[in-house]
UniProtKB/TrEMBL annotation:
It catalyses: an aldehyde + NAD(+) + H2O = a carboxylate + NADH + 2 H(+). It holds the Pfam family Aldedh. Its EC number is 1.2.1.3. One of its GO terms (molecular function) is aldehyde dehydrogenase (NAD+) activity. The lineage of its organism: Eukaryota, Fungi, Dikarya, Ascomycota, Pezizomycotina. Residues 1-20 are annotated as: Disordered. It is an enzyme of class 1 (oxidoreductase). This is aldehyde dehydrogenase (NAD(+)). Belongs to the aldehyde dehydrogenase family. Keywords: Oxidoreductase. Residues 43-493 form the Aldehyde dehydrogenase domain.
């Protein structure tokens, strides 16, 4: 899941800094603040993100200063003392209230996401609904109770899961609210205090969500800070922040890990993927090709689990190619985020330039475009129409890089061992899918793929109960499911020896 915004140095962030001015809408919903210790906080400096549908600036957002970071961390530490001792069931009730609060502003939040990401409105609404489901899942999750490992006449050995402290949740721009909620909910449920940092490219929905929750939670339990290129490093290097959960690019993730090593923080990095899809010869092409197409082009390919390398057996390759082209051909990325399509613009200029370069490289190398034009027009938006490349070389940029846009490769395979080797020939390992009429065969192939998530006979999607963890440079750690809850806990092992040490016990023996 990519976000070019670098929390260490933020190169290429095209946001402007100036003195605050009146929000462009009189509706107070479209006025934005940081949230520190339960209070809305403005700033003497503001930034604006850009609407990717027309490249026009959106609303002012405050830029947090170092003093704001220090105040937020202090408030979080103070709140943590009581919050970590709050019973699990009571913390779960808070998540239920957060779900209800999000439902109250469901339509407004969908509009915000539509404008800050460029998603069509139905996908923006889906993101809000996915965030609601995450809150529901964690609110209903059973408590992580101590586990008894050994209990005999001499020793009781137990393992318990303990809240860590202050968590910094650092979020990308492609699914801002959903990915933030996927960090906030498990961190709060396990008794941690959370400071959320949105992407400077898409800060609005996260800031508004936390602002909307600020009266529901004790002050300092959940806070949000938008900032400039210094904010990420201030959070990562702060000695009183105990854990970092970061979603973004591999390049930035490595910088986060290096900075976190100064204080040996616990780190989860959910980084880029270059998802592979293996299609076996025993499938109904007319059924499978349209579903693979959705998994490749959903949100214009701006999804870490997107199927970017589609390996199709040579016996059905031409037929599959025709069906997937027919499925995608009617899908047009729209200039209007209000259109009821499934494709919108690339979220920001940095991603747009990267995708454009991969189109240009494919054109210059003479690769065949089975669908789409190799020419990307520089217009008034970041719209790029979908493209399918017919059997490019394994070492080509379109195969080896995560474009994070609407361009995918269709590649022939014949030998099962060979295709597995090609699928695994990458520095990433986040998600992959296998399609076959023989479930056992599909599982056998999936078990050989070096990836944290394998999906059989469906395009990859996240579900709250499913743990998602990266292999290789897709990052250490993971989120989702019970395993995701455990990642927000310290583990304490208690060795309780049953030998009596009370006064007089030796005489009694």
């Amino acid at each position: 899941m990519k976000d070019q915004a670098d929390p260490i140095s933020a190169p290429g962030v095209t946001v402007s800094f100036k003195t605050p001015h009146q929000a462009s809408s009189s509706n107070t919903f479209f006025a934005f603040s940081n949230t520190i210790n339960g209070v809305a906080r403005k700033s003497t400096r503001v930034a604006q993100a850009v609407n990717p549908s027309n490249r026009q600036p959106l609303w002012d957002v405050p830029v947090a200063r170092e003093v704001d970071v220090n105040e937020a961390v202090t408030a979080a530490n103070d709140a943590f003392l009581a919050w970590s001792r709050t019973p699990w069931a009571e913390r779960a009730q808070y998540l239920t209230r957060a779900k209800d609060a999000l439902l109250e502003i469901r339509d407004e939040m969908a509009s915000l996401i539509m404008l800050e990401t460029g998603k069509p409105i139905q996908l923006a609404t889906l993101e809000v609904d996915q965030s609601i489901r995450l809150l529901l899942y964690y609110a209903a999750h059973p408590e992580l109770k101590p586990k008894v490992v050994t209990d005999n006449d001499d020793l009781q050995l137990t393992v318990r899961y303990v809240s860590m402290g202050v968590v910094a949740a650092m979020c990308p721009c492609n699914d801002p609210l959903m990915l933030a909620t996927g960090k906030i909910a498990p961190a709060l449920l396990t008794g941690n205090a959370v400071i959320v940092k949105p992407s400077p490219f898409a800060p609005y929905s996260i800031l508004k969500f936390v602002e909307h929750l600020k009266s529901l939670f004790p002050p300092g339990v959940i806070q949000a800070l938008n900032g400039d290129g210094k904010l990420g490093s201030l959070l990562v290097e702060h000695p009183e922040v105990q854990r970092i959960s970061f979603t973004g690019s591999i390049t930035t993730g490595k910088k986060v890990m290096a900075a976190a090593s100064k204080t040996l923080k616990r780190v989860t990095l959910e980084l880029s993927g270059n998802g592979a899809c293996v299609v076996c010869p025993d499938v109904d092409v007319s059924l499978v090709a349209p579903q693979v197409a959705v998994g490749a082009f959903l949100n214009s390919g701006q999804f870490c689990l997107s199927s970017r390398r589609i390996y199709v057996h040579e016996d059905i390759y031409n037929d599959f190619m025709q069906h997937i082209v027919d499925a995608v051909k009617p899908w047009k990325a729209s200039l209007s985020p209000g259109d009821k399509g499934m494709l919108g613009p690339i979220q920001n200029e940095a991603h747009y330039r990267n995708v454009k370069q991969i189109f240009e490289d494919s054109q210059s190398k003479g690769y065949k475009f089975a669908l789409g034009s190799p020419t990307v027009d520089d217009g008034k938006s970041f719209v790029i129409q979908p493209a399918i490349i017919d059997n490019p070389p394994e070492g080509s940029r379109v195969v080896t890089e995560e474009a994070f846009g609407p361009i995918v490769s269709l590649i022939q395979w014949k030998d099962e061992n060979d295709v597995i080797a090609r699928v695994n020939n990458t520095n990433t390992g986040l998600g992959a899918s296998v399609w076959s009429g023989d479930i056992d065969c599909a599982i056998a192939i999936g078990e050989q793929i070096q990836s944290g998530m394998i999906t059989i006979n469906r395009y990859p999607t996240r579900i709250p109960s499913g743990h998602l963890s990266g292999w290789k440079e897709s990052g250490p750690g993971g989120e989702g499911g019970t395993e995701g809850l455990l990642s927000y806990c310290n583990v304490q092992t208690m060795h309780c020896y049953k030998m009596s040490v009370a006064p007089g016990s030796a005489e009694a023996d």
